[in-house]
Write a structure and sequence with these properties.
The chain is an alpha/beta fold and 423 residues long. It has 2 domains: 3-188 and 362-367, NAD(P)-binding Rossmann-like Domain (Rossmann fold); 189-356 and 383-410, 2-Layer Sandwich (Dihydrodipicolinate Reductase, domain 2), CATH 3.30.360.10. The protein has 14 helices and 15 strands. The chain has helices at residues 3-23, 71-82, 95-105, 118-123, 139-148, 163-178, 193-203, 230-236, 242-245, 248-251, 254-264, 353-371, 377-398, 404-410, and strands at residues 61-66, 85-92, 112-114, 129-132, 152-155, 183-185, 210-219, 270-276, 289-295, 301-308, 316-323, 327-331, 334-339, 345-350, 402-403. The strands form 2 sheets. The chain has a 9-stranded mixed β-sheet with strand order 14-13-12-11-7-10-9-8-15. Helix 1 (3-23) crosses helix 2, helix 1 (3-23) packs parallel to helix 7 and helix 6 (163-178) packs antiparallel against helix 13. The longest helix is centred in the last third of the chain and has 22 residues, at 377-398.
Length: 423
């Protein structure tokens, strides 16, 4: 190992050590929750992705980066720090972003691809795995194409923004498992040892019978500057167009939706809600406020509220699960614990999860590849997360009760005219 590689490897492991060690062995929880299949859901993982345990790295995995703006290069840097990967190719709609990422990670000019079909050229460049971290609208297409090309996939959330996209990703995940390919969705909350322990104890009956749930998603305000074209929007303002981002409830709240469905073990069967546009002169169609009540097949109610307002409220993703004997709290940033009941756990403060969770997932993804672990449990859960977010979004927009069965039968896509974009 070269000196610089060794240094980066030590830094990566050092950042994971304290939290990662205590997470090992939490895979089998003996969960006392109803099977997801009984609720018509896809099979949700009981306790998230398995923690990484490898101490030696047998080989380098050639990775292609699909999405070179914002989080993409940041993630690629963490892949390099891990020590088991090399960035082999990069792709982005914008040539300047692909060039900048290529320069940063030492990718030859011949493997820097730009345009709407850039991912196809990247998939033919000799990559073994890809990181899909583009505008959410394109995630289903990129995930499916990568699986079709025989590549392993590390995917950002949300994996889709509508029902057809979620089902497309679910099918790709099943195909990947059949073809012995690995797909991992980069949710950070299921990697945290404190959160894992709380969920483990809930699955062991620590709440008693579940009564109801509350969850919260607070996002910073989404800027809405004027744009002259769809290209400008793709570069700087895709969040505020629902056909690109899926809206606040899908793009930001998906983290806490994921954690809640993991804890409960199934998805809700219906929802009712309201949403509101609060800004006085909206340019785009996103809604700053959602209030949604979901119902599970056993009558348990879950209320979710989310907002993106310029009102000085701190960013937050959290949930409370109220049982007959105890209360569980999970937080992306802050205290997580199980208070009372037979499985009381004082928990602790979840900190630095944005980077630590990504690092754990990158390590797990590497182990899945080199050890041939291709059950891909995060894919079905990620598809369910999208379906639940879309159910809440549609119920709120329509201002009516909407069932999951109705949503799936409608199978409505968010349409967007992409004509005029460079291939």
């Amino acid at each position: 190992m070269r000196g610089s590689d060794a240094c980066c490897r030590r830094g990566f492991l050092g950042g994971m050590l304290a939290a990662g060690a205590s997470a090992v062995g939490l895979g089998a929880t003996g969960a006392k929750v109803p099977a997801a299949e009984k609720a018509g859901a896809t099979s949700a993982p009981v306790s998230g992705p398995q923690p990484a345990t490898l101490k030696e790295l047998p080989r380098k995995v050639k990775v292609g980066l699909i999405g070179c703006g914002g989080r993409g290069p940041w993630l690629a840097h963490l892949f390099c720090q891990h020590g088991g990967y090399e960035i082999h190719a990069v792709a982005d709609y914008f040539a300047d972003r692909a060039q900048a990422a290529g320069e940063k990670f030492g990718v030859p000019a011949s493997r820097r691809f730009a345009g709407l079909r850039a991912h196809e050229r990247l998939l033919s460049s000799g990559v073994e795995a890809v990181v899909v971290v583009n505008v959410p609208r394109f995630h289903p297409e990129h995930i499916q194409a990568a699986v079709g090309a025989g590549c392993h996939v590390f995917a950002a959330k949300p994996v889709a923004i509508d029902v057809p996209g979620a089902l497309r990703v679910l099918a790709a995940g099943k195909a990947a498992t059949e073809k012995k390919q690995c797909v991992l969705v980069d949710y950070q909350m299921p990697t945290d040892p404190i959160i894992r322990e709380v969920v483990k104890r809930v699955h062991e009956g620590g709440l008693g019978r579940l009564a109801h749930l509350d969850s919260l998603g607070i996002s910073p305000p989404w800027a809405e500057p004027a744009v002259a074209s769809l290209e400008d929007r793709l570069r700087s303002r895709w969040l505020t167009l629902i056909a690109l981002s899926g809206d606040v409830i899908t793009e930001n709240s998906i983290h806490i939706i994921n954690a809640l469905l993991w804890l409960v073990g199934k998805r809700p069967v219906r929802a009712i809600g309201r949403c509101k546009v609060c800004r006085p002169h909206p340019r785009d169609d996103f809604r700053e406020v959602y209030l949604v009540t979901y119902e599970f097949d056993d009558g348990v109610l879950w209320t979710h509220r989310c907002q993106s307002l310029r009102n000085q409220l701190d960013w937050a993703l959290s949930l409370e699960a109220f049982g007959e004997q105890a209360t569980a709290v999970l937080s992306y940033r802050g205290r997580s614990y199980l208070r009372g009941g037979p499985k009381h756990y004082g928990g602790g403060t979840v900190d630095s999860l944005y980077d630590q969770g990504a690092m754990r997932n990158i390590a797990t993804f590497y182990e899945n590849i080199v050890q041939g672990r291709c059950d891909n449990p995060t894919v079905a859960q990620a598809a369910d997360d999208v379906l639940v977010a879309v159910l809440g979004r549609e119920a709120a927009v329509r201002r009516c009760e909407l069932s999951m069965d109705e949503l799936l039968r409608e199978n409505l896509a968010l349409e967007l005219d992409l004509s005029g974009l460079r291939a």
